[in-house]
Amino acid sequence: MLRRRRKGQTSLEILALLLIALAITAVSAAVYNLLYMNLPISVEPAKIRFVSGDDSTVAGAQIGVNGTYVSFNSVSGWPNALRVYTDAVRIKNFDPSSRTINLRLDSYNGDTSAVEFIRIKLFDGDTQMGNTIEAGTGNTSTGDLSMSAGAEWRVQLEIRWKDGVLSTYSVSLQLSLVVPGE
Amino acid sequence: MRACMRNIGALILGLTLMLSIGLAGWTQASVWNSLYAHASPIRAEEPKIRLREGTAGTSIISINGTSAKVSISSDIIAYNPSGYTPLGGTTLISGALNDIRADDSVYMTFRSCGYSAYNESLDISSTTSISYVDKVSLTFNPPETGHYIIIADAEIQCSSTAVNAGVKARLYNGTNTYQEVIYRPRNTAEWYPFNALKQLYIQGQTTIRLQFASVSGSSVSIRNARLFIFKATSVHYAESEGRSTTNSTLWVDKVTLRFTPSSEGDYLIIATANLDSSSTSYDVMCRLIQDDSIIHAEVRRRPRAASNRYNFGAMRKITLDLSEHIFSLQFCSSSSFATAGIQYAHIIVISLRDFPAYYYQESESESAAQQPNTWYDKVTLSYVPLEGEHLIIGSLHHTSGSPIQQVQFRLSQNGNIASDRVVRQGASMDYEASFSFMKVMLNPSIKTDKIQFSGTSKTVRVKMARLVSIQLPFQQIAEMEFTGTSNIKRWAQLTWTVDCSASITSTTVVIQLYNYQIGGYPEEGNGFAKAEVGLNDSTIIQTIRDNPACFRDASGRWRMRIRCLKTRTDPFDFRIDWIEFKVFCQNTYDYVLKITNCIADSWIVRFRAYSEVNIGRLYNYTIYVYDGDSSIQIQIIDGDYSQQCGSWLSLDGFGVIYVVVSVSALELGISRIHTYLEINRPNTSVYNLMDVEFEVS
Which among A69, B112, B292, B530 is most buried, taking Cβ atoms within 10 Å? Predict the structure, then answer.
């Protein structure tokens, strides 16, 4: 059934469209209006933290006050031999619920050509969790790993310098532990 | 105009939707946290522990002394004999030591000898020689020195009955006579028996001869001559070979055999002697008596001439208990006016337990020839023997009853005549005793042995007829000893191999390695093997892992005795294709590496095998470390790990630990064991792994 349009109806539609266009134009313009938002930001303990492992002292691990940062300054290896820090540092989930973590290699530099490999592995007990991070040549992330509440995983560092390397050689690497969500 | 306005409106609506979606996405952005780990610097440092070359094997150490490859070798050395000695009567027929160094069907061939030997000459041989000539001889080289029994048998004939004519026969070894018959016949048709018995101590090759001769140059003959030498285990023997005489008409002992049997049972007694009398009117008498009561033989002979030497031969199966028994060969004269003589008297008693089987029959009663020139069976022995060589002996007392009559008697098997004697006695009272024998190979079908007799009149009589068939246990043996050299290293295993065959089937080969620890050849277990060998080569192998070094002397020399035996009397050939004495040395490399601590701090270290190649051939592979005490770190036994990881050892400040390897392999090849030397700081879980590869060729 055909419905006839009434006179003046089209004009109202055009008017509405023009008002909307006007509003859009107002947002894009250099001319703006300020709206205010009250945003209190609190400090809360990190849900995932670095904690000391059995070999942290030997590796020269210094863990930040809040457990969100660790620095190793005494990691070394012998040329053509594998050095393994079985328990260099640990990662612990303090959250009452599971959290997802991902350990990533951010940077790796220095005398990297003198290194045969540096590997970082996460272990829950004797079970390796995720992929092996292999500096320079291989995988750079463990991948997303679900860490149950209260779980404590150890970080294993493996270093092998090439044969004939001098003791003046060194490298450095930086890792980030990404924990999605609040 | 209206249409234009409609299009503009649609455009504005589209833009509005796009912006709405973009704003919604902005408001759902993720929240994450980043924690940071920083390691700097990661340094290369001088190794605190270093590997250093050892003094044994070959070690390749990396620049920094943090990895190594150790190469050692296992020794598998095969030796062949460098000398040999045929033992006993065994003789080398062909070949040399070079021929037994490979399994190539090129042989050293040895001819066997036996604990028995036999020869016969059955045809008639004649001579007019008054010097003895051989009828049959037997050269015997026994496997071992000892007492051997000789029996001989023949029939002799003289073509003349003249009183000075005669035939004689003897058993002779080239120096000594052991039995002698001198016979002057009353009739040229006579075939007089000759029996001989002797136990002789034989130390090497010996030739025994059965000879005959003419007394005065007339033609004489001999036939059915047999000579048999054998060894028996349980034998009692007595002899008195010098001539004894007596005028007594009472029995006089010539020789006495006294013994107490070690076991009760059946025995065979055989006795021989040669008798004479000084008078042609009186008789010489002789008997074989047991325990002064049982007469096994008794003869009487009136001589035709005083120089005659008559035959006495008797055999009988007897059963003895465990009490002492006395057997005597006695003689006397029928009259004190005549002198009776006896010489070459022998008595032997042999236990029949030494023989695999025997069959016996006797007929002791007297039988007469009722019809002249008719054959009578005196005793018949029927049996189904076991397959093998048999000695069949028939013994008979016989008389013609008159100097003008003659008795004929023979031993036969299934109609085949072994001996056929014809005798005229000197007087009606005469009775003589003789035996004959044959050696035959029998199969397990019925056999009928007979002693038959015949005579020219009813005066002809026989008695005390006995027949025995004995399966011979006698063996032919090819025996030799090989000697060789080896080494004085530690042996993990010894494997010896003999490849051999024989010219006959089913011989028994016994191979023994001299055990220097026990000071003799073993009779079982290691160093002893027994196998049946036939016409085709058989390979006999023995592997010794339990103290193999006891089969060498302090200089590494070894001895191997091989005996090939067969129950038979004829020699056979034993062929040796290959003899190998292979030793698998347990080589110890002390030391292949040393682990040095370059600082004052202590460490703990151990070896751990993590991969391997071709270790199945390794018999005993052991990696030790030594720091005053030794500790097994890795061990492979029989091709598999018995220990793959060692216990921790403390490596004190500036200390040294030595690495020792001991290896034996059962096959040629190359094996590799990849290990880590694990180096830990005490009380931490920080460790270092050094690659150490052990290669064994």
Answer: B112
Is the alpha carbon torsion for B430, B292, B325, B322 positive or negative?
A: positive
SS3 state at B614: coil
Residue B643's Cβ-count burial label (10 Å; 0-12, 13-18, 19+) is middle
B303/B275 Cα distance (integer angstroms): 9
Q: CB contact, 8 Å: B46 with chain A?
A: yes
B170: nearest Cα among B145, B197, B147, B146 = B197
Segment-wise mean pLDDT, segments of 10 residues, chain B, 697 residues: 45 42 40 85 92 94 94 93 90 95 96 87 97 95 89 97 94 96 96 97 92 97 96 92 97 97 95 97 97 97 95 98 97 96 98 91 96 96 92 97 95 96 94 96 94 96 97 85 95 95 95 96 95 96 94 96 86 96 93 94 94 94 89 94 94 94 92 95 87 95
Which structural domain range is residue A52 located in?
48-178
Residue B270 · residue B230 · CB < 8 Å: no
Q: Is residue A36 part of a domain?
A: no
Pick from A83, A163, A169: CB nearest B63: A163
- Answer yes or no: do B44 and A77 touch at CB < 8 A: yes
d(CA A112, CA A118): 10
Q: Which two tokens stand for residue B237?
A: 């023997």
Query: Hey, is the C-beta of B554 within 8 angstroms of any chain A C-beta?
Result: no
Question: Would residue A159 count as lying in a domain?
Answer: yes
- Cα dist from A153 to A74, A124, B517, whole Å: 21, 5, 64
Coil, strand, or helix at residue B56?
coil
Measured CA angle at A162 (ends A160, A165), to 5 deg: 115
Residue B626 inside a domain? The answer is: yes
Determine how many CB atoms are found less than 10 A away from the CB of residue B363. Answer: 18
Q: How many CA atoms lie within 13 A of B352 on its CB side?
A: 21
User: How does strand A69-72 pair with strand B32-44?
Assistant: parallel
> Which positions 654-683 of B are in contact with A (Cβ < 8 Å)?
679, 681
Q: Please say whether the beta carbons of B111 and B91 come within 8 A.
A: yes
B630 plus B658 within the same structural domain: yes
A-to-B residue pairs, Cβ atoms closer than 8 angstroms: 193
Classify residue A17: in a domain, yes or no: no
Q: Which residue has the tokens 């007929």?
A: B363
User: In this structure, are residues B44 and B66 in contact, taking their beta carbons and an 8 Å threshold?
Assistant: no
The residues pairing with B227 across neighbouring beta strands, listed in sequence order, are: B119, B152
Q: Which domain holds residue B672?
A: 49-73+586-696
Q: Whole-angstrom Cα distance, residue B450 to residue B394?
A: 8
Residue B28 lies in a domain: no
- The continuous run of DSSP H or E covering B688 comes out as strand B686-696
With CA atoms as reference, report the closest residue to B496 among B524, B525, B528, B521. Answer: B528
Closest Cα partner for B467 from B360, B561, B547? B360
- Beta pairing partners, B678: B606, B689
CATH code for the domain of A113: 2.60.120
Q: CA-based diameter of chain A, in Å?
A: 95
pLDDT for position B11: 43
CA atoms within 13 A on the CB side of B100: 32
Q: Could you say which of B12, B30, B43 has the minimum Cβ distance to residue A170?
A: B43
Distance from CA of B611 to the nearest CA of A (A): 17
From B13, B33, B689, residue closest to A179, measured CB to CB: B33
Tell me which amino acid residue B194 is: F
Three-state DSSP at B460 gives coil
ipTM computed for the complex = 0.77
Residue B695 has a CB neighbour count (10 Å cut-off) of 18
CB atoms A110 and B42 under 8 Å: yes
* pLDDT exceeds 70 at position A22: no
* Overall domain count for chain B: 5
Count of CB atoms within 10 A of residue A29's CB? 8
Give the pTM. 0.62
